[in-house]
Design a protein that fits this description.
Blueprint: H1 2-14, H2 19-42, H3 50-76, H4 79-85, H5 89-99, H6 107-125, H7 130-162, H8 167-191, H9 199-227, H10 229-236, H11 239-250, H12 257-272
């Protein structure tokens, strides 16, 4: 579902939706649906303590940035290119975890990072279309790197909250909170959005709300609870490559051999980073 969302979003943006107007409507409706689901299950959205609210505020901020990067990455580059670059997300998670003192960067992770970012460079320079296309793709690649970095920051930020609250409660509050800054920055586009869009565009929006924002949250956290985060994340690593396949098949996008090599390098980096984490000893 997450993979298919690249193709769906690229389609709706190419057929009438302004990027920020799309995000505002999508997150607003998802917040209503998920909030109602959480109230039905837990009867409360209560969060205790100033520290937890600060963590939630940080999570909301980086997720809002993540969504801006997401829609504009797909505006400037192809869904195939964006999805391949997103494969660098696990490396960002490892680097950020080291930066905040949760883990140490081992030589294995360092090599994995070099392999992944080298792969990103290949994906960027391997785009077809000459200098004009390369310039647009570079914007899209940089925005996708921003998307990967902010998603990594979001994942690290909410980790302590997951030990105290259910994923339903956290997701509900984060969705509502993320909608507010998106509305503020996207109000201009939303007010000027032409709503006379084709039925397939509206179907795509419905999918982007119910699938990647609502249902996948339930499925993902259920999977993490049943099989653990490490095993679950192995399947999540398939997301960028499955997204590239969807885009190639359904959007008639092209991919060069240089980009294929870049995608393989990113995949190799993910594989190398899968060694056991080295936690920072207590007191350091």
């Amino acid at each position: 579902m997450w993979s298919f969302n690249f193709t769906v979003t690229k389609y709706v943006l190419a057929h009438g939706f302004r990027p920020l107007a799309y995000s505002v409507l999508r997150y607003g409706l998802a917040a209503i649906i998920f909030g109602a689901l959480t109230i039905a299950i837990e009867r409360t959205l209560r969060i205790r303590g100033r520290r937890d609210w600060l963590l939630l505020g940080a999570a909301i901020l980086v997720l809002a940035l993540n969504q801006v990067c997401f829609v504009y990455a797909l505006t400037f580059t192809t869904a195939t290119t964006a999805s391949l670059v997103l494969g660098s997300t696990p490396i960002f998670v490892a680097l950020l975890a080291a930066a905040v003192g949760l883990e140490r960067i081992t030589s294995r992770v360092g090599i994995a990072g070099l392999a992944s970012f080298g792969g990103v460079a290949f994906v960027a320079i391997g785009a077809e279309g000459g200098i004009t296309r390369l310039s647009a793709d570079l914007k899209g690649v940089l925005l996708t790197l921003g998307m990967a970095g902010t998603w990594a920051a979001y994942s690290v930020t909410i980790a302590p909250l997951m030990r105290r609250y259910s994923p339903y409660r956290i997701s509900s509050i984060v969705l509502v909170g993320t909608w507010i800054p998106l509305l503020l920055v996207g109000l201009h586009q939303t007010s000027r959005q032409d709503w006379d869009l084709g039925w397939l565009v509206w179907l795509g929006l419905a999918y982007a709300i119910v699938g990647p924002l609502v249902l996948t949250n339930v499925l993902w956290f259920t999977a993490v609870d049943r099989i653990g985060p490490s095993r679950a994340s192995l399947f999540a690593n398939l997301q960028p490559f499955a997204a590239a396949i969807f885009a190639l098949l359904l959007l008639d996008e092209s991919v060069t051999m240089v980009q294929v090599a870049g995608g393989l390098a990113i995949g190799a980096g993910i594989a190398l980073s899968r060694g056991p984490a080295t936690p920072v000893p207590r007191g350091e």
